[in-house]
Amino acid sequence: MIKEVAIGIGAALLVILFQQGVNIMPWFFMVGLVFVLYYLVGSKGGNKSFAMINSSKDKNKVEKINFDRIGGNASAKKELLEALEFIRNPKKVVSMGIRPLKGILLDGPPGTGKTLLAKAAASYTESVFLSASGSEFIEVYAGVGAQRVRQIFNQARETAKKEKKNSAIVFIDEIEILGGKRGTHGSHLEYDQTLNQLLVEMDGINYYDEVKLLVIGATNRSELLDSAIVRPGRFDRIVNVDLPDIDGREQILSLHTVNKPLDEDVDLKTIARETFGFSGAHLESVANEAAILAFRENNKIISQKYFIEAVDKVMMGEKMDRKPDKEEMRRIAIHETGHALISEIVRPGSVSSITTSSRGKALGYMRQTPEKDLHLYTRDYLEGQVDILLAGSIAEEEIMGSRSTGASSDFQQAINITKQIISSGMSSLGVVSLKEVPATMLHDTVTKIIEKEETKVRDTVNRYKDLVKEVAHYLLEQEKISGDKLRQLLGVYKKTIKVSS
User: Fold this and answer.
1) Sign of the CA dihedral with 23 first, then 29, 30, and 31 last
2) Which of 79, 176, 336, 453 is labelled catalytic?
3) What span, in angstroms and rounded, lies between the C-alpha atoms of 195 and 235?
4) How far apart are CA 319 and CA 399, in angstroms?
5) Which of 23, 69, 138, 248 is least buried, going by the fewest C-beta atoms within 10 A?
6) What is residue 355's three-state secondary structure?
7) What count of other Cβ atoms lies within 10 Å of the Cβ of residue 466?
8) Tens of pLDDT along 377-416?
């Protein structure tokens, strides 16, 4: 109403001035300039409305997320639930003399459920939940970022009062964009001003305010955060949201398949074992892709074979239509069989399957199933991984007489693992820093380790050369071989060797 009256008065004034013979062109220019400034600063900065989830206005639009619907990450949920008790039981907190937490930082790889945990926290505490990304606070216009920080805190308080709630949660995803180390953005001080405003707002959070505020940040790059934002009194608690272990993966799969018609042969424990290193988002995609594969073949139930196929698809991509020629296919089969042979010898039972099907950028691949999730690695284990990586190209060389470019990524991974051996103090150099080791010395040490492993792998491949040829021939005919079938052939071959010797 006020805007319309002002526009009317302005238009009338311009008409009067025009009738009096006054040059109104400068006035038009000034009005246009004010309008542009209002649009750039006011519209883009001052009128920002942040996403609100689980609000009373959208109960029918957004389904609430509860902690019992989030699989894995038991330790992260435990730490978060403990922090949320400060909102749920304020009297008990005061009686114990506890200073409530102002902020919680969720740190972990992408797809591990950090946003879901924040949403569940809002549902658990019955709080107003405002969500924003760190990039929403950064603009090229000076002061806009700081204004938006003030705005999201004010919006949280006002919304909580309107909905008659005594608490609100402000969730900032990708907070490293907003809270990055100051002084690292060159002459662009907008980042620093925005971070300073966030620090001021968090310092101003008072537990005795009418609306209790809790800030939850999420990041997968915690090393980029400014030290001032992660100190006690701001983000008081850092909760690590790691990739799920085998039990966590099974739990996540069970949650994502509860609404799907599964066949009796589906074994989620086996699928969990096959998906080492998968995040919750990957596992949800596996369940979804398995259902899509069954739907594609007009099946009303989802069997185990679809889940196995879905794991390959999520890991490597869709099957490619282009087929290599016969000679290339034989080289690929020998290459992947070399990987699988050494994998079974180094760690029996580790091969899940071998295939010559082209997926993504891979012309073929061997998939391993780790016996258990490891967090620490010995030199023997790392050397075994190097052996597996080198085995493909060595099998090509020993059977086909030459290597190919298909092993370039294997070699790069082998070099990285070898450097890990050196940096961990497990090489002849002893305890060293990779940054301070001369380049020639580092190169010589890496070469020495890899040459030693190459000799070991070459001897093994030559000993099992006939088996490699047999498995490769099987792959050329069937396109895929299971780990169980490979182990069966390997067992028969070992007996043959003993009899002939």
Assistant:
1) positive
2) 336
3) 13
4) 27
5) 23
6) strand
7) 12
8) 899 999 999 999 999 999 999 999 998 888 888 999 999 9
